[in-house]
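Weekly sync, protein design subgroup
Attendees: M.S., D.O., the rotation student, P.L. (late)

Item 1: inverse folding check
M.S. brought a backbone from last month's batch and wanted to see whether the design step gives back something sensible before we order anything. D.O. pointed out we never logged the input encoding, so this time it goes straight into the notes. Structure tokens as presented (228 positions):
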């Protein structure tokens, strides 16, 4: 799987001829670079509808043939604002926390997240590709001990975790999250975008070595890595 980080919580996952964007915050994201290859993904996953996560979702949907998957309440809101319901998965109903759905040969589970949102409640996603390679995108969240339950249910190859603090977990709590999740690798996100967030991965580096066996993948914005 090719994983690309656009800064903040925006990622592309590409595997088995399928392109998935998560939280495509491109416009207004000071770290985001060239996105032209990512403007017509097969699927957009939205963890919650704060602007720095739902981002360019509506524009991308309107300009292409992408599908979107989010919590039901965001899906209803998208329908109400004029998004073609054919582009909203499961007849415009999306899904909800605890559910697992199929997208082609991918399986996608919606997880809890401790945060706020405008419509519905915030969420995370566990995405398993047809080979079984498993990515957890935590969305915006505080640390919660049920991450240990996710470790029991899923074999997480890569966790995408916020480390920026203020609105989410900070570096210490994200390192504890790695411990609970038993993730093999972690890619930090939701930092450096805005002055109020932490500006680098220095502390996170120290804490993950101290609290977990997880390997840090310290991507630069707009950098890709092949894993799995
Ligand atoms: Ni948020
Ligand atoms: Mn956010």
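Designed sequence read out in the meeting:
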């Amino acid at each position: 799987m090719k994983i690309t980080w656009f800064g903040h919580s925006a990622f592309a996952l590409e595997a088995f001829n399928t392109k998935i964007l998560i939280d495509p915050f491109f416009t207004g994201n000071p770290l985001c670079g060239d996105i032209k290859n990512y403007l017509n993904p097969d699927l957009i996953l939205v963890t919650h509808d704060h602007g720095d996560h739902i981002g360019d979702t509506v524009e991308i949907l309107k300009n292409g043939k992408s599908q979107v998957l989010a919590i039901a309440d965001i899906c209803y809101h998208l329908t109400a604002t004029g998004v073609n319901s054919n582009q909203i998965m499961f007849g415009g109903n999306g899904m909800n926390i605890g559910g697992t759905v199929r997208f082609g040969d991918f399986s996608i589970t919606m997880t809890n997240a401790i945060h706020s949102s405008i419509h519905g409640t915030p969420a995370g996603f566990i995405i398993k590709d047809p080979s079984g390679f498993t990515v957890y995108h935590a969305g915006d969240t505080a640390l919660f001990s049920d991450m240990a339950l996710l470790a029991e249910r899923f074999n997480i190859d890569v966790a995408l975790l916020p480390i920026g603090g203020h609105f989410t977990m900070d570096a210490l709590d994200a390192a504890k999250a790695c411990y609970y999740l038993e993730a093999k690798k972690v890619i930090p996100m939701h930092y450096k975008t805005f002055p109020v967030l932490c500006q680098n991965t220095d502390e996170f580096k120290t804490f993950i070595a101290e609290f977990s066996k997880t390997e840090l993948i310290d991507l630069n914005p707009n950098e890709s890595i092949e894993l799995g």
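Discussion: Helices lie at 51-54, 57-62, 72-80, 147-153, 171-181, 202-211. Residues 58 and 82 are 9 Å apart (CA to CA).
Action: P.L. to compare against the previous round before Friday.
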